[in-house]
Design brief:
Elements (H helix, E strand, L loop, with lengths): L8 E2 L1 E4 L6 E7 L4 E6 L4 E6 L5 E6 L3 E6 L4 E6 L2 E6 L5 E6 L7 E8 L5 E7 L7 E6 L5 E8 L2 E6 L5 E6 L4 E7 L5 E9 L6 E7 L5 E6 L3 E5 L6 E6 L5 E7 L5 E6 L6 H6 L6 E5 L13
Amino acid sequence: MKNDKKIIKKALLWYNIKANLGEGPLWVTHSKELLWVDIKGGLVYAINAITRVNNVIYKGNKPSCIVQVSNHEFLIADGHKIALLNLITKNYNEFASLKFNNLNIRFNDGKADPNSNLWIGTMDKNALHNQGSLYLINHKKKISEKLNNITISNGMTWSLDAKTMYYIDTFEAKVYAFDFNEKSEILNQRVIIDVPKELGMPDGMTIDNNGNLWIAMWGGFSVICWNPSSGKIIDKIEVEVPNVTCCVFGGENMDTLFITTARDGLSSAELEKYPTSGSVFYTKMNVSGFNSNYFKI
């Protein structure tokens, strides 16, 4: 008799830690490390994939994302500043900063694009509506606002042919697509995925080698894979904690999906029920991903 039961992927615990707001995972092939942040803890970590040792590499205010510059240099967005960290010297300097009119505004998610520019969004610390923006920063440190009236600027990635940029405003529960070109211009904004509320809120995002989007679901106990062309769900990874924040492909063959989570927003009862909230999870995949784009200085 044919067994039609669907195989359910479940993420496994990779590193047990009580991060308040784990986010921004970045796989570093050179050192075989997963770099990630605890935004509200003010820390940036590096977990060695072989030893599973988790070292603090940066202490700050509200570090929210990490972008690679070279084998040993990384940009770290922190509050309203962007620091350039050298892991050999352990020193960091301010690379760029923005003066926000509202002191509650901070940087959130950010990534380098295929043209080696930095895209980074902002949000109000209390998630007030329409207070955030999306900025483009080039190697000359020129900062340009590209979108505004954003509530929680979050996940972003680019299509395999670099002709489309995908972008999430978590509060709107929408995934947008833009035409994208070699000048890093975004045009023709459209909604490609309207996430049903019962699935949670879309947070961080990455793309696989088939061009499908893997999106972490805040409040949704999962990472869900969507086909960006059809807007249909094609796969799902269950995570044992509610607030799933971001994901990235890494590992020896780039076929391990690392998943960050958060304790933030959970009640005492929920934290007791889901004690591994804030930890880093993983799952082996039948697809692979890519190294993240570098920022060019």
